[in-house]
Amino acid sequence: MEKLKKILAMVLFMGVVVLSACSEETTLYDEITEEGVLTVATSGTLIAASYYNDQDELTGFDVEVAREVGRRLGVDVKFEIMSVDGMLPAVDTGRVDLAANDFSATKNRKETFTFSEPYKYSYSTMVVRKSDYSGVRSLEDLAGKINGGGETTISSEIARHFGAEVRTYGNASNEAYLRDVSIGRTDVVVNDYYLIKFGVAAFPDFDIMMHPDLKFHPTEQALVMKKGETALEEAVNEALQAMRDDGTLSDIAIEFYGEDASEQTEADVEIIEGLDI
Prior knowledge:
This protein is of the alpha/beta class. The protein has ten helices and 14 strands. The protein is globular and about 60 Å long.
């Protein structure tokens, strides 16, 4: 009988140990802090959010925001270069911890992923040819046009919403997208205002311009994380808030965009009705 009691006591003890271990399950943030590395997906081809400078160094607004978040979390930041269409799957499978590439925090995306608090506020516009506006004077004129863009981007969804065909490029540079508009291979590139502003300025010899009249679909950009990683979300948001409070976020925005993109835009921006993104 005494022996049986000892066996039962041991079984109960092991059960408590197992339950305790389950209740203290390691989070992604625990793994990041233990390893001392935050892995971030980005493209390296998106002026001025994520690109290589003249010294072949990876930089850009989103890149430097992610670097500063890592610094404030006390970890190194390792960037994984990939196409925009591959970034969200990489977050979902755990290949990377975050994605930083001018991602808009939309209703549909929030159902599958966790987004940080916004660190950039903007809106959409488009690149067209200077010579003829690419035949686009209104959003409805996109019907039948060819838009250059990523397969899964919000910008491509907007173009499709108005009847445009989307030609995809993989992880191509700004130059490839913009040259095709200039030579008439495509008609437009629907994209973020700040990205278009600097992309167009980088290629003054192309027959392109930012559309002077069309401003639509206000956006909020944020870092993307795997759904349910609450500890990482809280840590990233604390770092971003500290960056906002001490002016670091504004400084980074002005460095790359010439404007404080971290503050809400006051532009008169059209809301697109019926756009389910």
